[in-house]
């Protein structure tokens, strides 16, 4: 369903459910790619000693896959809480920029709805919600940000992530090392699909390239998960420096 078709449908039935369903349906391809690495995270967590109860608590309260993979990699017994908290903050710091990009479209929402929307913010729901808001803006539809569409995508992503990480924790002991199945390749595949939807040409993609090169170099020469933070900071800095050149 296109944005204009959805807007017509929303006008006819008041948008009571069509926008929410549109959000869920737009998220289905992403969910197909997300499910395997949710299972991988669950299986890895059990290998580190987390139970099928503890893992959904973490993924439900934190809800940021990148930092959860980093936390599991750093998990020891007893865990180094300060280190895990610091890495989680660094990895999730990209949400500051994601929230700032989305903020201009949230002005018409009361704070309680805006805060609830931001709680369910993740890379996938952010990319889908922002792309949809820009399409509605170009089509002259107001408000540009469809909360029902966004929440359809975000809640589908949230429930699938928490559910399948828990399933991975339950199935992990039976499957063994799930990385042998190649499921971890789904993680970069999902982000490549999201990047394709936001592609605006090589000039606009230069900050992505800078982030990729810096993250790869830090990964090769610096131990730990610092490559994630380095990639995020270098991408932000290059985007700021190159602003207006694209």
Automatic annotation (TrEMBL):
Top-level taxonomic group: Bacteria
Membrane-crossing segments per the record: 149-172, 178-195, 207-229
Homology family: Belongs to the AzlC family.
Protein name: Branched-chain amino acid ABC transporter permease
Localization of this protein: Cell membrane
Xref: Pfam families: AzlC
Bilayer topology: Multi-pass membrane protein
GO cellular component, one term: plasma membrane
Major localisation: membrane
GO biological process, one term: L-valine transmembrane transport
UniProt keyword annotations, A-Z: Cell membrane, Membrane, Transmembrane, Transmembrane helix, Transport
